[in-house]
Amino acid sequence: MIRINREKRNFSQRLEREVRRRQALRQAIIQAAEKVIARSGYAGLTMDDVAREAELSKATVYNYFRSKGDLVLELFIYYFEKFYRLIVRIKSESKSSTEKLREIIAYFLRFSREKEIISRVLMVDRVFLRKMRILAGATEQSSSREKDLITEIKKQREEIIKETSEIIAEGIARGEFRTMDSVLATRLIEALLQGFIHGRFWNPSRYSLEKETEILLDFLLFGLGRKKEEMKGASHETI
């Protein structure tokens, strides 16, 4: 009985090591692909270059990713996975909902800066943009694997929306935020952040990461309007 338990434990440990090894290889290939895309764009991306950059055989790369299209989509999945794990961690912290929202905004802004070069490259790469339009429409030109990856990306995005909306709902229950549809509020926050990041592409001037975070958080919490009491007072002053 002791021997059987020992064998089970050894098998479990070997399995865990293999899982970690495969995860490390997958991450190494994705990081290599980032560097190649930053240099050559999506059109110039080849699996040979990725293999050389990762210092792996081409066969190993193909063992994890079937094509460069799959590789780029899995790159996005990798980003979403990191963001999801971060939000789950933030959600579990014993902080105010406002502080949790600040952490999420700060991470999003910091991550977007770290990936700014690759984002700029992809935004002007016609081959990549045409590929994404095809995938977004899930046409017959999309492979079944690509459709599965797009489905996974959409699923992960919705999971991120769900977790974040629960932080907003928590803030509403605590009286930190006003009563609203927490899911809709989260989608509007996402739209604001995406628009802010897109604006960087056209406007090179920027604040520090800390200042950007506070500007966006302040806008989300207070917006453009004034309190009703202040508005009423202002109207009396003008009479």
Structure described in brief:
The chain is mainly alpha-helical.
Q: What descriptive keywords fit this protein?
A:
11 helices; Arc Repressor Mutant, subunit A; 2 domains; mainly alpha; Tetracycline Repressor, domain 2; disordered C terminus; single chain; 239 residues
Tally of distinct domains: 2
Write down the CATH topology of the largest domain. Answer: Tetracycline Repressor, domain 2
Percent of residues in β-strands = under 5%
Order of helices and strands: HHHHHHHHHHH
- Terminal-residue CA separation: 91 Å
Shape assignment: globular
Q: Which bin fits the share of residues in helices? A: over 70%
For the residues shown, what is the average pLDDT?
84
CATH class of the largest domain: Mainly Alpha
Report low-confidence residues grouped into runs of 5 or more: 234-239
Looking at the overall shape, the CATH architecture of the largest domain is: Orthogonal Bundle
**What Rg, in angstroms, do the CA atoms define?**
23 Å
What is the β-strand count? 0
| CATH homologous group name of the largest domain | Tetracycline Repressor, domain 2
Main sheet characteristics: none
**Helix-strand category:** mainly alpha
In DSSP terms (H or I, runs of 4 or more residues), the helix count works out at: 11
